[in-house]
Amino acid sequence: MFLRRRFLQNAFQENLDEFKDEFQENLGQDLFDDAPPSPSCSNPNWSLDCCCGDEEIIFISLMCGYLLANFFLWNSMLLKPMKLIAVFVHEMSHATACWITGGKVSAIEVYNNQGGVTKYQGGKRCIIIPAGYLGCAFWGMVFVVFSGDRTASLITACVFLFALVISMFFSPSRIMMLLSVGFCVLTVGFILIDRLLFDPTLQYLTLFYGVFIGSFSVYDIYDDLITRTVEGSDAHACHQLIPCCLPRCVGLQFAVVALGFQALGVYLALVWMTST
Question: Is the whole model's pTM more than 0.90, yes or no?
Answer without folding.
Answer: no
